[in-house]
Design goal:
It holds the Pfam family M20_dimer. One of its GO terms (biological process) is folic acid catabolic process. This is Peptidase M20 dimerisation domain-containing protein. One of its GO terms (molecular function) is dipeptidase activity. The chain contains 14 helices and 14 strands. The two termini are 42 Å apart. It has helices at residues 31-43, 45-57, 66-78, 123-138, 141-144, 161-167, 219-233, 272-293, 313-322, 375-379, 401-406, 410-432, 435-441, 444-456; strands at 82-87, 90-98, 103-109, 146-152, 176-178, 181-183, 194-203, 242-249, 260-269, 296-301, 311-312, 362-363, 384-385, 388-390. It folds into two domains: 11-192 and 308-456, Aminopeptidase; 194-301, Alpha-Beta Plaits (2-Layer Sandwich). The strands form four sheets. Strands 1-2-4-3-5-13 form a six-stranded mixed sheet. A four-stranded antiparallel sheet has the order 8-9-7-10, covered by helices on one side. Strands 6-14 form a two-stranded parallel ribbon. Strand 1 (82-87) and strand 2 (90-98) form a beta hairpin.
Length: 471
């Protein structure tokens, strides 16, 4: 169960469109506060759409999203947020704060693009919805007893920026967090996969490929052997596992036996536990390639491990309540809390996990066709959600050129309105009706227990240096 909405919501029902209906009296929060949040958001929808289009028009790779970060920080400052920039060694990371209540809620903003195809994952919309939700909720922060944060998280695609922000303590005082990801469907708790990213290089010996081939050691042969070994391994891997490769160096000329070759390998699995064993076997394949070709391999972790996501059940229910796109969807999977604890972990099939650590029960959906995200790592540390909301994409999925076009379409404008309202109102409900629950989850002892579990699963503290910014 993932909370998949089978029918698309009619566009005319979107928030902010003529005839839209208030959720005052529907969501579990003071109707007067709900109305003020909706009014603040509705008044600024045109400005938020301009921001999303501006970021979309100037796509930037992770760690160099200077224009997007400037634009987001500027509009948040206009709404009274105090902005701190340059966090965890990342110039494009930021933290914007408003209010001084005892409960701290955070909307995480992503704004990096993909090489060659721009905002084909819709991060221009993720960042805009986070800022819009934060600004709307700030309108009632004092009455609601909230401190509202928008945390700018660079480089989700190429570096795992949230992992470095967690390690730097940026989320240490946050009680709950969330964001929305655009997709080709509405899904409350979409699955994500844990993944490891490995970089392997081989050192061979150059020689003339025709005159003196016996003097060489072909580093590209090592990649060929390793790739065949990985291909044979695939038939023995669990259904959830994916292994994909990209050759990044194959020598300089066809008539020179390559003295060096390199490849990046990404390994994905339903959960961090399954991933550990698969990554070890893939590593054996990579070393075997070097042995067969007589070329010394150098193998390293290129990125921190991304983990599977753990959804906070209560916050997921509150989000569904605040998002009419999920009207009528079966929510039993986030209502029936079960008896298992989060500390027990998930099985190899990525099945249900429950938590009794005070953070609310957590849920990890069964794995299927899924991607990976550093949101997963954050969800091990604090209560977190990342629902998907539907873009009209013509049937294409994320990381396709048509998805980039959809991220600046009329459907994207409606998604921003619906998504920002649902984020703001679900966090209003969590922060007013359920503040005691989340404050209890944020005690030092409970935070430390969650971090210890994450470290044990190598979800945190891997010691992988931050990538150099792309040039």
């Amino acid at each position: 169960m993932t909370g998949l909405a089978l029918a698309a919501a009619p566009p005319e029902l979107a928030f902010g469109e003529p005839g839209w209906s208030t959720l005052a009296g529907v969501v579990d929060a003071d109707p007067a506060l709900v109305t003020r949040v909706e009014d603040r958001l509705a008044a600024g929808l045109g400005r938020w759409w301009e921001l999303a289009l501006d970021i979309h028009a100037r796509p930037e790779l992770g760690l160099v999203e200077y224009h997007a970060a400037d634009a987001l920080c500027g509009v948040l400052a206009e709404h009274g947020f105090a902005v701190t920039r340059g966090l965890a060694g990342m110039p494009t990371a930021f933290r914007a704060e408003y209010g001084g209540g005892p409960l701290t809620v955070a909307f995480t903003a992503e704004y990096d693009a993909l090489p060659g195809i721009g905002h084909a994952c819709g991060h221009n919309l993720i960042g805009t919805m986070a800022a819009a939700a934060g600004a709307a909720l700030a309108a009632v922060a004092d009455e609601a007893g909230l401190r509202v944060l928008v945390i700018g998280c660079p480089a989700e695609e190429n570096a795992g920026g949230k992992i470095y922000l967690v390690e730097a303590g940026v989320f240490d005082d946050v009680h709950l967090a969330g964001q929305i990801h655009p997709a080709n469907r509405d899904e409350l708790c979409p699955a994500t996969l844990a993944n490891d990213t490995l970089a392997v290089s081989y050192a061979g010996k150059a020689a003339h490929a025709s005159s003196f081939p016996e003097r060489g050691r072909n580093a590209y042969d090592a990649i060929t052997v390793a790739s065949v070994a990985i291909g044979l391994l695939r038939q023995q891997l669990p259904d959830s596992v994916r292994v994909h490769t990209l050759v990044t160096d194959a020598g300089d000329a066809v008539n020179i036996i390559p003295e060096r070759a390199a490849m990046t390998v990404k390994v994905r699995a339903a959960d961090a536990g399954t991933l550990e064993g698969v990554t070890a076997r893939v590593g054996d394949c990579l070393r075997a390639g070097g042995l067969a070709a007589g070329c010394a391999p150098t193998l390293r972790r290129a990125l921190p491990r991304f983990s599977e996501i753990r959804y906070d059940r209560l916050l997921s229910r509150l989000f569904a309540q605040a998002c009419p796109r999920f009207d009528g969807v079966d929510l039993s999977f986030v209502t029936d809390t079960g008896t298992n604890t989060a500390a027990a972990g998930a099985g190899a099939d990525g099945g249900e996990k429950g938590g009794t650590d005070g953070a609310g029960e957590t849920y990890t959906p069964p794995s299927g066709r899924a991607a990976s995200t550093d949101v997963g790592n954050l969800s091990w540390v604090i209560p977190m959600i990342q629902p998907m909301l539907r873009l009209e994409t013509g049937g294409c999925g994320n990381h396709e050129a048509a998805f980039a076009a959809a991220s600046a379409s009329e459907s994207a404008r409606l998604l921003i309105a619906d998504g920002a309202r649902a984020l703001a109102l679900s966090f209003l409900s969590a922060g007013t009706r359920h503040a005691g629950h989340y404050l209890a989850a944020g005690t030092p002892g409970r935070r430390a227990a969650r971090r210890a579990e994450a470290r044990a699963a190598e979800v945190l503290d891997l010691g992988v240096p931050l990538l150099d910014p792309p040039r």
